[in-house]
Amino acid sequence: xxxxRRLASSVSLAEGSACEMDSTLPAVAEELLxxxxxxxxxxxxxxxxxxxxxxxxFGPSAVPALDLVDRxxxxxxxSPSGRTAFQVLGSSGKLYTCYSSCHFCTCPAFGFxxxxxxxxxxxxxxLAVYLSQAMGACQELAVSEEQLTSILLAEExxxx
Length: 160
Prior knowledge:
Blueprint: H1 2-15, H2 25-43, H3 48-58, H4 62-70, E1 74-78, E2 84-89, E3 95-99, E4 104-105, H5 108-116, H6 124-134, E5 139-142, H7 145-159
Parallel strand pairs: 1-5
Antiparallel strand pairs: 1-2, 2-3, 3-4
């Protein structure tokens, strides 16, 4: 909560800046997440400069993603074989499945703003997955192979 408030109060400083996005942005995003992980491990909080970087790189997804992390809405679902997916309880109360290995989320915002319009790198749900892992706020759920398959197929059925 404190991280989200500090970000919201200091965002106006970064919003006036403009910078062209280039091909190094994904590497920059990964580096920022590594720095957030390191800072959080050392101090149990995320410094303002990294919060500003988060807002600058991920734009309007940053604050809602931090809110999802604060509410511990991210669950890592793991099967005995090691297959992993993430489930994020969205602010609307709907459960979305995210795949961090391929940066994909089942939410409509991902399909529209990330895939169709290319306006954002990630939706708030995937960003919340990465942040919750970096901040140690990810819940864990061990499931059978059959249960994981059901989770994945349930998403397909909703889309079809």
